[in-house]
Design goal:
293 residues, mainly alpha, Ribonuclease iii, N-terminal Endonuclease Domain, Chain A, Double Stranded RNA Binding Domain, 3-stranded antiparallel beta sheet, 59% helix, globular
């Protein structure tokens, strides 16, 4: 720096200066350096964030048994619409389109595997077994088994509302991941995920007859026991905004509540309540009130 600037220049400088005997030392270079360092730090932190995210996605790929050649597909499959909206990215940047594709791919693979794996089941039983495997509750269970919620990208508001463990968000993300795997590696990549995390449940469901309509099962059991009245389903509460309603239903037999369930619709909540009652009745069937003679 020049050490013999005229005095009239000192007040014109827009940056702080330090004056020493015999000349001046401007702090202007250090201001630039600090700005550069701040920018560099942001770039480094951003790169580290991407690196950490890439490392986490590698763990997820290992669990999924598929390594994505185009990892942007997996990233989009994990992006909830709330996150895309918070970044002004638009709905097309969320996982909704991949969820749409994954739903169809999942249904096709599940139907084919059940057809091959259960040759003695008729059309009706196959349909009910498939419905049990692809329903939201089962898909959310599969997503939790992978700890998929940890990787889903949500807005801060959705995060605070507990979206990371919400059944609908988990089930949708699972379908989206299946769709992403199909786009990246074809049907075999999607099959690898479903074989590991979903289709192994089919044998247990078939053995326990858990795939049958739980309301019909409960009705039949109640009739066999000779109870006074058929099961009654009562909505005990309904909450949430119109697009995310949550119903809680209780099923009563006689004057006692035998099961409770919740769901995004009354039908889903009733099925969950019936399923809960079926878990109780085999142990306590003698306690069900009987018809008066």
């Amino acid at each position: 720096m020049c050490r013999t600037w005229p005095a009239r220049c000192r007040s014109a400088l827009p940056y702080p200066t330090h004056w020493a005997s015999g000349g001046t030392t401007s702090l202007w270079p250090f201001a630039v350096t600090a700005a550069m360092l701040e920018r560099l730090l942001r770039l480094v932190l951003r790169a580290l964030g991407r690196s950490g995210r890439e490392s986490e996605l590698s763990q997820l790929e290992k669990a999924l048994r598929h390594r994505f050649s185009d990892r942007t597909l997996l990233t989009q499959a994990l992006r909830h619409r709330s996150h895309a909206h918070s970044r002004n990215a638009g709905r097309s940047a969320s996982n909704e389109r991949m969820e749409f594709l994954g739903d169809s791919v999942l249904g096709m693979i599940v139907a084919a595997r059940l057809f091959e794996g259960f040759p003695d089941l008729g059309e009706g039983d196959l349909t009910q077994l498939r419905s049990s495997l692809v329903r939201r509750e089962t898909l959310a269970e599969a997503a939790r088994s992978i700890d998929l919620g940890k990787w889903i990208q949500l807005s801060l508001a959705e995060e605070r509302r507990g979206g990371r463990d919400r059944e609908s968000i988990l089930a949708d993300a699972f379908e989206a991941v299946v769709g992403a795997a199909y786009l990246d590696g074809g049907v075999h990549a999607a099959e690898a995920i479903l074989d590991r995390w979903l289709l192994d449940r089919a044998a247990d469901m078939e053995r326990d007859r858990a795939y049958l309509n739980p309301k019909n099962q409960l009705q039949e059991l109640v009739q066999e026991e000779g109870t006074h009245d058929p099961p009654r389903y009562v909505v005990s509460s309904a909450s949430g905004p119109a697009h995310e309603r949550r119903f809680v239903v209780e099923v009563e037999i006689g004057d006692r509540v035998w099961g409770r369930g919740s769901g995004a619709s009354k039908r889903e909540a009733e099925a969950c309540a019936a399923r809960d009652a079926l878990r109780q009745l085999p142990r306590e069937s003698r306690m069900i009130p009987r018809k008066p003679e």
